[in-house]
User: Which sequence fits this backbone?
């Protein structure tokens, strides 16, 4: 609900558990008065203090009132060059060469339903689900107007923000920085939590108390990246899964981003989140507008768990456009770790038959089926079937797979081109690279210039030809290198600062075209595993391959970190061979499946080569996955313990929304002789109900399981437990 008090120019955004308030003061400065656990409201600007602070200057409107400074007041969307020296949200390069952005309130509009953003991913909601507030600000001297957009999803405590910047003057203005979100906190006694890592080790949680100055994470790789995720948190120092106020902020964007927090001189703090200013310079001609990506904010008064579950629910209901939303997603087998590039039609068909016999429902043909690609050095861009490997083409193979009762899925990497390809030989200028500069290769490949419509058209047509001629119900959309030498032959020198962002817009444009032309095809995102695991991609690809690391023990940390913002239903997770190819570790088959089943389940190995006993296990696992599917995909997720290197077990729980059914998963870490007795305290159950646990005749009271905990059996190293709880 949005409460607008026109007289006071006061706006209160009330959600189920939180309150967010802003106010335009007597000078038109838009103040951020409060964000946190729900309060009654009223004018909370009384929380703000005024004092004469040295070296904090005073805006023109207040004359010589030395107690009023933009440098000390909590700003809703900070400007630059006008007396607020903390992190700026907006930086303009004006026609006269000045760099000032100084915004004042103009008006506000309420709308029912959720605003949309053209060409950009955004949470969606009808009149029943969401409300919109649009506040217009202006820098009169610069002739620039700024619309601050707010979407309020009351039931989920979700507040979305985006910003539209309009050049109302008659000369070009350059945007140097345009954050999607600025959030001021009255106290910097906060921890900053980020999700970091690298290829095959994505999204490990890191937590540190705010220190003075600016600390930030971001990406200048052209993709949101394996190294840092565009989702960060701030919380009270004592906050944990169940306690304390915490804030999560995500950017729905798949390119360069920056999340910065500043601990400021008066022990206040500011968070900004948006497109990374590195190599960003956007020219707004007279009358033109620029829209930032959307940011999503969620505050939980009761710890991380509640924040995550609210994000999960909101993402499932208002971000994912999942073609399989109302039917169970098929169990898949993927050819990559089974054969890599080494296959032909016969081998694939044998693989498919053996997989089908065990109950697999979707056969995914990964890399290596096109052009003359036998390794990763060629053919990207030549999206036609290698008939030597697959005589009769995809149509014939798909028909055979379908006859086995399986659906068919295909790997593509549409944003890339190999130097050894017909496409590159024909259009060497279609890559991002200044023509007179040597290129930098990544996995032998170059990046197509998706800022250009003709490039996107070409790729769309090539993909569509494939999809028109074969029954493809799933696409794995990969992206396997970062952007370098970012320069487009199609843009003049002064517009090269737009290429990074235009590239992302181009990717979104093509994804949307492919989605619309193939409404029944599910697209799984991928970027060398989880290099582009962000809410922007989820709008187009409702699931994303979580990591190229399929080691079940490493996956515990990766999926744990991912779960802070993203629901299990979005995490691609497969069982692969042991010893694992990344780590050399051997983990029991049951554990590999338990970990993978808490995502979108599948196999990534040659099922036909398994010993008979393991084949039987596959049959049982597929059955078990089907039984737990609804609970895992739509239930609430509770992290019970964090993966640690010290050998303590990692535990998590899926709980149905009516709290009558739950599934407890526990994986033992490294074991040592003489292990301690361990118990795990469950959460989210109904304390008054009695739960029957798998293999246990005597029911357990919900409150006992939550307060005293469930006594774990002695698990051997890397062994697991997967127990159902059903209320009597
Ligand atoms: C990336 C993906 C893998 C696989 C290979 C194919 O690394 O993450 O899953 O598809 O590409 O080349």
Assistant:
């Amino acid at each position: 609900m949005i409460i607008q008090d026109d007289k006071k120019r006061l706006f209160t955004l009330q959600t189920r558990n939180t309150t967010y308030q802003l106010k335009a003061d007597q000078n038109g400065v838009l103040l951020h008065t409060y964000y946190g656990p729900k309060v009654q409201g009223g004018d909370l600007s009384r929380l703000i203090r005024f004092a004469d602070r040295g070296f904090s200057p005073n805006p023109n409107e207040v004359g010589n009132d030395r107690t009023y400074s933009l440098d000390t007041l909590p700003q809703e969307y900070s400007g630059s060059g006008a007396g607020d020296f903390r992190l700026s949200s907006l930086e303009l390069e004006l026609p006269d060469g000045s760099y000032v952005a100084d915004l004042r309130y103009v008006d506000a509009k309420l709308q029912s339903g959720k605003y949309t953003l053209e060409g950009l991913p955004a949470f969606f909601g009808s009149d029943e689900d969401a409300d919109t507030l649009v506040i217009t600000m202006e820098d009169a001297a610069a002739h620039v107007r700024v619309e601050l957009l707010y979407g309020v999803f009351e039931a989920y405590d979700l507040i979305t923000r985006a910003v539209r910047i309009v050049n109302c003057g008659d000369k070009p203005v350059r945007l140097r920085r345009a954050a999607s979100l600025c959030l001021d906190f009255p106290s910097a006694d906060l921890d900053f939590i980020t999700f970091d890592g690298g290829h095959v080790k994505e999204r490990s949680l890191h937590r540190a108390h705010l220190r003075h100055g600016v600390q930030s994470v971001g990406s200048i790789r052209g993709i949101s990246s394996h190294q840092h995720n565009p989702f960060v948190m701030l919380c009270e120092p004592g906050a944990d899964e169940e306690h304390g106020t915490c804030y999560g902020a995500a950017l729905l964007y798949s390119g360069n981003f920056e999340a910065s927090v500043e601990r400021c001189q008066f022990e206040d703090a500011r968070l900004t989140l948006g497109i990374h200013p590195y190599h960003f310079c956007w020219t707004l001609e007279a009358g033109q507008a620029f829209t930032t990506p959307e940011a999503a904010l969620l505050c939980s008064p009761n710890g991380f768990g509640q924040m995550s579950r609210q994000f999960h629910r909101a993402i499932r209901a208002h971000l994912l456009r999942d073609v399989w939303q109302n039917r169970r997603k098929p169990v898949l087998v993927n050819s990559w770790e089974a054969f890599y590039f080494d296959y032909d039609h016969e081998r694939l068909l044998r693989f498919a038959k053996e997989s089908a016999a065990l109950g697999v429902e979707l056969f995914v043909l990964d890399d290596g089926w096109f052009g003359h690609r036998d390794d990763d050095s060629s053919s990207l861009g030549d999206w036609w079937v290698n008939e030597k490997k697959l005589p009769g083409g995809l149509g014939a193979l798909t028909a055979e797979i379908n006859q086995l009762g399986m659906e068919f899925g295909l790997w593509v990497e549409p944003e890339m081109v190999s130097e050894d390809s017909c496409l590159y030989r024909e259009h060497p200028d279609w890559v991002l690279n200044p023509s007179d500069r040597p290129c930098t290769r990544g996995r032998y490949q170059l990046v197509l210039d998706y800022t250009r419509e003709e490039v996107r058209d070409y790729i769309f047509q090539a993909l569509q030809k494939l999809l028109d001629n074969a029954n493809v119900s799933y696409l794995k959309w990969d992206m396997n290198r970062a952007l370098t030498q970012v320069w487009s032959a199609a843009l003049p020198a002064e517009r090269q600062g737009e290429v990074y962002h235009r590239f992302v817009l181009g990717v979104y444009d093509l994804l949307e075209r492919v989605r619309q032309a193939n409404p029944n095809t599910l697209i799984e995102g991928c970027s060398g595993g989880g290099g582009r695991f962000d809410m922007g991609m989820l709008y187009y690809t409702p699931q994303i391959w979580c990591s190229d690391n399929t080691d079940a023990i490493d996956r515990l940390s990766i999926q744990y970190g991912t779960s802070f913002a993203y629901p299990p239903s979005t995490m691609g997770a497969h069982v692969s061979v042991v010893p694992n190819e990344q780590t050399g570790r051997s983990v029991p088959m049951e554990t590999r499946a338990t970990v993978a089943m808490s995502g979108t389940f599948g196999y990534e190995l040659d099922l036909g080569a398994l010993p008979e006993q393991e084949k039987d296990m596959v049959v049982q696992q597929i059955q078990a996955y089907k039984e737990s599917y609804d609970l895992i995909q739509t239930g609430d997720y509770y992290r019970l313990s964090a993966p640690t290197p010290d050998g303590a077990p990692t535990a998590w729980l899926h709980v149905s929304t009516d709290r009558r059914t739950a599934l407890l998963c526990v994986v033992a870490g490294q074991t040592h002789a003489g292990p301690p007795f361990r118990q795990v305290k469950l959460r989210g159950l109904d304390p008054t109900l009695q739960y029957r646990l798998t293999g246990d005749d005597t029911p357990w009271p919900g409150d006992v399981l939550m307060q005293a905990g469930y006594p774990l059996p002695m698990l051997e190293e890397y062994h697991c437990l997967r127990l159902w709880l059903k209320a009597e």
Notes: The radius of gyration is 27 Å. The longest helix spans residues 612-634.
